[in-house]
Amino acid sequence: MGACAVHIPGGQASGWELGETERGDPQLYLLGPAPEHDCILSISRLGRLYILEDGNGRVLFEHDNLLPIAEQAVAALRRKKQAILAQIAVTWCAMREFYEEKIEPAMAEPVEILTHFAPQFAALV
User: Fold this and answer.
1) What are 20's strand-pairing partners?
2) What is the distance between the alpha carbons of residues 26 and 72, in angstroms, rounded to a whole number?
3) How many CB atoms are closer than 10 A to CB 116?
4) Distance CA 37, CA 34 (A)
5) pTM to 2 decimal places
6) β-pair type (49-54, 59-63)
7) Are the C-beta atoms of residues 76 and 60 closer than 8 Å to each other?
8) Which domain holds residue 83?
9) By C-alpha distance, which of 43, 38, 40, 81 is closest to 61?
């Protein structure tokens, strides 16, 4: 819980829920931000083995000691934040490239735009 609690004030997570497996073993679910509250990570104990899964159910790490599981949970949350930042950077670059390739040349020649959309006004210019 301590490894997950760090991400709640920053808004990456909204809280956690406790549950149990079909066999009665404990589980911890880290929930995403509101309003969806999707599961971001889960930690389950199956017998003596702890299993860390992402929100899609993929196993990220298994160990029989809870400390390495907590360390891997923090690392997984950090990687998720970096992935979001990378997506934002790629989107920004794509938008800038679109502007430079499509919008900026069109704005450089307003007469051509005018003749394209209103050819009757081209004779006036």
Assistant:
1) 26
2) 18
3) 11
4) 5
5) 0.55
6) antiparallel
7) yes
8) 2-121
9) 43
Report the number of distinct structural domains present in the chain. 1
**DSSP per residue, the chain:** -HHHHTTTTTTS--EEEEEE-TTS-EEEEEE-STTT--EEEEEEEETTEEEEEETTS-EEEEESSHHHHHHHHHHHHHHHHHHHHHHHHHHHHHHHHHIIIIIHHHHH-HHHHHHHH-GGGGGG-
Structure tokens at 62: 């298994």
Determine if the peptide bond prior to 35 is cis (ω within 30°): yes
Residue 47's φ and ψ, nearest 5 degrees, are: 70, -115
Q: What is the pLDDT along the chain (125 residues), one digit of tens a residue?
A: 555 555 555 556 677 788 888 888 888 888 877 777 788 888 888 888 988 888 788 888 898 888 888 888 878 777 776 666 667 777 777 788 887 777 777 666 666 666 777 777 666 65
